[in-house]
Predict the 3D structure of the following.
Amino acid sequence: MPGLHKPNGAGLSDGTYPQLAGQHATVLIKQMADVRDGRRENPKMFPFAGKHIIDVQEIADVAIYLQNMKIPHDNGKGPGTSLERGKALYKNDCRSARRKRRRQREEVLPCSGGQHYKYMLRQIMNIRDASAGTPTPRW
Ligand code: HEM
């Protein structure tokens, strides 16, 4: 695994590089394809995602390799001051919706457990801001 995603797929706890180990291959393939096609803005990775650098089979191979890696548990954590509130929100607003969507079709839903707090926060902020006009929706 080149660069700062780290050999064990752990990324960086400061949230600049996501943790990829244990992520669903479907999600990884979609994200790589989206970066390649410019649907997912990622200037650092874009030059490495082109067809002349990595072909479709190689994307699939790397995705399966990462999916099978063990999720490291030393991911970047948040302050931990509102865990009960976070749990309640996840239970009420996220979990059932994610289950339902997964049942309805072969939904590409990322595994978010063990992801770096700062990366996750940034993705959620990007999604929130996208609805206010910034065109960079992320997981
Ligand atoms: C085959 C090699 C690689 C694979 C499979 C891979 C996979 C991924 C995936 C699935 C994401 C999450 C999608 C996203 O957040 O946009 C990601 C994010 C990222 N990758 Fe890679 N990557 C690879 C190589 C690289 C390289 C070589 C660089 C840097 C030179 C890089 C830099 C980044 C950065 C900075 C992000 C975070 C983007 C953000 O959220 O702002 N990646 N990568």
